[in-house]
């Protein structure tokens, strides 16, 4: 799981390389295998019981499926979800614009800066969301950059915080993608055809990184849509804060929306697996709990 | 000159990551009127704060070790335990989802399961077992640990699987040929090779749990005394009655997170020797 010769190892919270579906190499039958089945079944139960309980809870109201009918008619829910997705997409775009040129430049021109860039992209693990938002609130609640006074200012702060949270995943994904292509030859070829830096990044490098960027992007979307701590302290009415207090007036709908949220996580992970097929499939793991 | 290309990234990181963190560091070293002091760090010995760190560390240790052991067994079961191979990719997919399913929805799912009115609680009560009579509560330390395990052991599965894959068949065969029992193989060959990975991943799980806030907040309505929750309360309304003490509290957390990430990186690098 190394980034490259001499580079620091990749914390697995961001990037776990898995050869999916490798057949088990050692097959033994008998009592041992029964014990392993028991372990596996306990794991499956741990995974599914809370989901099944949530599903059954959401189906409790007298009129079967009522909770789901109310989610469909809940404009506030759609507002919160839409808001979260818009923020997530802006975050992905911002993060891509920042990370792709930086990772490309480090590989092409300033390999000496790699430890520095890697260190910075690791910092979000050392500074968890609750500390990050604490610092942001202190820094931007007074001049020269007074951002916490207006809605737009808070939105900007939230997106910037989320871009920071996405650094480890995006940088790792993009850097691994860059390693797989010969950027030096591609750059020289493009330059000899008269392309400028912008043209090279946009028409040559970006298309080659599609898979990496998408993988990082889906993970970022999953994190941003579920993020609670930063949103609540910036007073933003995104999906997670909405879900958090939904139970006060309708616990059944809250259960239904919990399952929707689980579905979003599942979808994001599924899409990562889908775009990663063909190359070595990668499962990425986040840490915004 | 080439370093100028890193300008946008450097400026953004300064503005939204480094300066806010430095703001907290400086604040933690000042008294209310802005003079340099180490008082705030001395203030961390306040019983309430020690208690919060103690709870955070306890929860993180329990879920890191518990999740680590179970995650390892689970990964070993599908990789080398003789289970059908399709279960492996199924488990990896589940683990990817579960380790990312956290925060508010995770806390809610457990509330619907073993909260006071959760389905399992109600079911058990119907057959004569009241788990809340036995001292259990989802809204306490043990409850939080139970919930955190939901994302801890899948993370262990994901991170440790490559290490288990790295155990070469030839090593086991060689030790068998030389007359080693399975116990000897584990004690002398497999465990020494796996130890850096196992230890490193458990440290990673520790940090993963230590930094968690939303899950515990939702479960306990922000009432449990763990470090992230105390920091949240401090942000809402200066519950420590000293903003600078709040900054020192945050710095203490950053230090613990740094130790955890560094420990993980070092051990992971060491374990890579065997995982080529």
Describe it for me?
The complex is a heterodimer of chains A (289) and B (276). Chain A is mostly helical. Chain A has a single domain (16-283), classed as MetI-like (MetI-like fold). Helices cover 70% and strands 1% of the residues of chain A. Chain A has 12 helices and 2 strands; from the N terminus they run E-H-H-H-H-H-H-H-H-H-H-H-H-E. Chain A has helices at 31-58, 66-73, 75-108, 114-126, 129-139, 151-180, 183-192, 197-208, 210-226, 229-233, 239-246, 251-275; strands at 16-17, 282-283. In chain A, helix 3 (75-108) crosses helix 6 (151-180) and helix 7 (183-192) packs across helix 8. Chain A is globular. Chain B is 74% helix and 0% strand. By secondary structure, chain B is an all-alpha fold. In chain B, helix 7 (141-165) packs across helix 9 (182-210). Chain B has helices at residues 7-28, 39-42, 47-80, 86-100, 104-114, 119-126, 141-165, 169-177, 182-210, 214-220, 227-237, 243-271. At the A-B interface, strand 1, helix 1, helix 3, helix 4 and helix 5 of A face helix 1, helix 3, helix 4, helix 5 and helix 7 of B.
In DSSP terms (H or I, runs of 4 or more residues), the helix count of chain A works out at 12
Quaternary structure type: heterodimer
What share of residues of chain B is helical?
over 70%
Summarize the biggest pleated sheet of chain A. Answer: 2 strands, antiparallel
Mean pLDDT of chain B: 91
Report the CATH topology name of chain A: MetI-like fold
How much is the average pLDDT of chain A? 84
CATH class of chain B equals Mainly Alpha
What fraction of the residues of chain A are assigned to beta strands by DSSP? under 5%
Fraction of residues in helix of chain A: 55-70%
E-strand count of chain B: 0
SSE string of chain A: EHHHHHHHHHHHHE
Shape of chain A: globular
Distance between the termini of chain B: 37 Å
CATH superfamily of chain A: MetI-like
Using a beta-carbon cutoff below 8 angstroms, give the protein chain pair with the largest interface and the number of residues from each chain: A-B, 107 and 101 residues
Strand arrangement within the widest β-sheet of chain A reads 1-2
Estimated share of beta-strand residues of chain B: under 5%
Q: Which homologous superfamily in CATH is the superfamily of chain B?
A: MetI-like
């Amino acid at each position: 799981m190394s980034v490259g010769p001499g580079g620091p190892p990749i914390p697995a919270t961001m990037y776990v390389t898995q050869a999916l579906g490798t057949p088990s190499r050692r097959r033994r039958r008998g009592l041992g295998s029964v014990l392993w089945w028991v372990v596996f079944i306990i794991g499956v139960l741990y995974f599914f019981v809370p989901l099944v309980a949530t599903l059954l809870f959401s189906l409790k109201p007298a009129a079967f499926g009522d909770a789901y009918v109310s989610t469909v008619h809940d404009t506030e829910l759609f507002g919160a979800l839409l808001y979260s997705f818009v923020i997530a997409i802006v975050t992905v775009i911002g993060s891509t614009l920042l990370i792709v040129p930086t990772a490309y430049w480090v590989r092409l021109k300033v390999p000496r800066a790699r430890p520095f860039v890697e260190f910075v992209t690791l910092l979000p693990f050392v500074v968890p969301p609750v500390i990050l938002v604490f610092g942001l609130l202190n820094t931007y609640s007074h001049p020269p950059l007074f951002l916490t006074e207006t809605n737009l200012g808070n939105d900007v702060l939230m997106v910037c915080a989320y871009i920071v949270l996405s650094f480890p995943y995006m940088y790792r994904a993009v850097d691994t993608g860059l390693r797989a292509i010969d950027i030096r030859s591609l750059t020289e070829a493009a330059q000899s055809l008269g392309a400028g830096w912008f043209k090279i990044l946009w028409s040559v490098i970006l298309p080659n990184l599609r898979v990496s960027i998408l993988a990082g992007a889906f993970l970022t979307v999953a994190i941003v849509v579920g993020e609670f701590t930063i949103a609540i302290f910036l007073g933003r009415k995104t999906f997670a804060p909405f879900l958090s207090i939904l139970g006060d007036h309708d616990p059944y709908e809250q259960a239904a929306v919990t399952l929707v949220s689980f579905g979003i996580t599942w979808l994001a992970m599924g899409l990562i697996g889908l775009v990663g097929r063909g190359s070595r499939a990668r499962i990425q793991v986040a840490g915004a709990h | 000159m080439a370093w100028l290309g890193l300008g946008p990234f450097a400026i953004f990181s300064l503005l939204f990551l480094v300066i806010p963190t430095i703001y907290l560091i400086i604040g933690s070293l000042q008294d209310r009127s802005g003079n340099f002091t180490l008082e705030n760090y001395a203030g961390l010995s306040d019983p309430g704060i020690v208690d919060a760190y103690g709870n955070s560390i306890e929860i993180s240790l329990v879920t890191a070790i518990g999740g680590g052991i179970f995650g390892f067994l689970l990964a070993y079961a599908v990789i080398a335990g003789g289970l059908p191979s399709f279960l492996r990719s199924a488990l990896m997919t589940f683990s990817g989802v579960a380790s990312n399913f956290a925060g508010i929805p995770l806390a809610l799912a457990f509330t619907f399961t073993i909260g006071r009115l959760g389905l399992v609680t109600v079911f058990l009560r119907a057959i004569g077992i009241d788990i809340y009579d036995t001292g259990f509560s989802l809204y306490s330390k043990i409850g939080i640990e139970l919930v955190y395990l939901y994302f801890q052991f899948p993370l262990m599965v994901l991170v440790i699987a490559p290490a288990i894959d790295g155990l070469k068949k030839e090593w086991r065969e060689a030790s068998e040929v030389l007359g080693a029992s399975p116990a000897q193989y584990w004690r002398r060959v497999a465990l020494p090779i796996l130890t850096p990975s196992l230890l490193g991943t458990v440290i990673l799980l520790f940090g993963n749990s230590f930094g968690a806030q939303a899950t515990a907040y939702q479960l306990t309505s922000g009432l449990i005394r763990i470090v992230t929750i105390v920091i949240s309360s401090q942000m809402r309304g200066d519950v420590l009655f000293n903003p600078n003490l709040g900054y020192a509290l945050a710095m203490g957390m950053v230090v613990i997170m740094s130790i955890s990430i560094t420990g993980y990186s070092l051990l992971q690098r060491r374990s890579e020797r065997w995982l080529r």
